[in-house]
């Protein structure tokens, strides 16, 4: 005897329209920036944009930790995260790396741990609070830092390599995300991870990979013509797998903090929930794409 | 009206003898290893030794987190920490860095976050548990990793640069520690940080710096004759300050976990409490010494 199939959730058209509208506005802005990616000011703008997102993300992270009764530090977490982000920006500008990652991490550690000694009045939850501050700084600093490094990649025969790679990252992740939403809403039957994210289904996950692959081949046909079919397939599957795992990781965090929306009453992205909800797949996909083009294509 | 001076704590002779005895055994072993530091097998032995200490430290860390009701992962934390340690070892062997720090951190993140998705049955405290796993991995991985890198330094005119630097690190930190113990026990009156570490006094802290400076000049006179007096003073004060702050940081963690001894019933170092208690100053002093000899002396 098999259990009866779960009822199909209705397609949420209002949220979908808002979601697509917001995505459209972002897309226009983003494509402009990517097209101009070889300009130094475009690199600075991109880094500043991600710096702003980093502070917003650390703030959401801090609120989540405080909801659990801990005291992660927004100031120390943002400073630590920005130091890591700045490392990737400077590495993109100067291969000699004036702020190596070990130094950024050492300064981050000093800000988080010594900062707590000097500025935190309530040290009763020092261990967990400082651990949460680190996690927010690493999650946003590395997750967004790899995007900065990708954007500043040069060295392929084509102009504007970095812009093409960021376009690839976003299109692959977001087309997978959208495909999962449609396929999951229309065909979803078998629960993927009911404890973690009860709405996700195996059908949606496969739809996600289909969207990832379609996007990767679209990128190969347009922005990155030097990719082989093997590259496109490998990058699509890699980013799709890692991105979906990253999405689940963030879901477990929210669940453990009894939070439905990482935003929790702060600034929202219309139709998209909190910032962390929107970037959770990108955070893990960015280092995966970086590793692929670094080790397979030899970009530096 | 000033409050009456606090009663002077008695000098604990039994613990002191045990402490000195253990230190003596370690010293013999250590000096032998340092003297042979240019041998490849000595570098491997040192790295393995610190790898063992890393796992022991992560285990103490994990016990502390579990005492607070969280579920940090010993396996993921140890793997993540060892990846970071291995980065420093390989960097010491090959300047081209086959396991760059960004890759070690990416693999660490995958082990900690994806590992929890696949292997952790109870995800109710996912956010704090994974944050604690990261903190243990970073604390031990970076703290001990910088020692590995220091030990593998070459490039000064003298043979065995790395052994000399590790000797400097340990002697400066531990002579400061011992001086603080004697001066604090004999003369301590004014509490330094009663909330965090009630036994520490300003007199002890100044004694600590005195011990750091004396050790730094002793090192200049013997193992590192190329140091100037400014080098010795700067390194003594830098390591003494950072080391004492690091000691306080670890004290706040133990206090927040309601733990007196980081060891908590695991393997102890006789007379010295847990491993974390013993290395807390070294963890922060090692990157400080590394940064000094890297930026001021140009060692790579």
Radius of gyration of chain A over all CA atoms, rounded: 20 Å
Mean pLDDT of chain A: 88
* β-strand number of chain A: 0
Helix content of chain A: over 70%
Of all chain pairs, the largest interface belongs to: A-B, 44 and 44 residues
Q: Helix/strand/pairing class of chain A, anyone?
A: mainly alpha
Order of helices and strands of chain A: HHHHHHHHH
- Specify the overall morphology of chain A: globular
Uncertain segments of chain A are none
Oligomer: homodimer
Share of β-strand residues of chain A: under 5%
The major sheet of chain A is characterized as: none
**Alpha plus pi helix count of chain A:** 9
Terminal Cα span of chain A: 56 Å
List the keywords:
homodimer, 300 residues, mainly alpha, 9 helices, 71% helix, globular
Q: What is the topological layout?
A:
Two copies of one chain form a homodimer.
Chain A: H1 13-35, H2 40-67, H3 74-93, H4 101-119, H5 126-151, H6 161-187, H7 202-221, H8 229-256, H9 275-295
Helix pairs in contact in A: 1-6, 2-3, 2-5, 3-4, 3-5, 4-5, 5-6, 5-9, 6-7, 6-8, 6-9, 7-8, 8-9
